[in-house]
Fold:
Amino acid sequence: MVAGGSPPCASCPTWTAPTGGRRCGRGSIKIQRRSMQTVIERLLSKIMVEPTTGCWMWLGATNKRGYGHMSVRRKFIDIHRLSYEFYKGLIPLGLQIDHLCRTPSCANPDHLEAVSPSINVLRGNTLPAQQARQTHCKRGHPLDLLNTYFSKNRERICRICGRERKRNARGTDKRRPARISPDFISPR
Structure:
């Protein structure tokens, strides 16, 4: 719910009566205005501002990955989503909240941004994100448009390394030995 407004998804087809704590099909948090103030008061009471980074560090419960969450009417709500919706508005359909500061327990709305799932993954520290940021192969060749091709499973492959692999697969012993003509051999 946006501060001082009506329920965020009153026009949503999956909207139910505002009994609090429910989510619609868009994933928005629906809490009555009266109880929203108490939820925000609870949220702010468990936040400590980090002076160097400006992060609003969540001191309450966290999940396995370090994201803060709190219970509202027997349902757990992620505090970064709650903070974003209270201070910035609804989370658009199909978007996720990304922590620009890379701190999962941060609830500062200035450190939160609604992005697509693919952008969120690429900004993280996952293996696909690391591979997407890679500019050179493991042997130091550039992974640019001229030196890169894609395999069937969309993996980037260095052309120089590919040629070297093919050359080594043939091996030197499989090459035809040079023929020496009998005329070339001189008698002693």
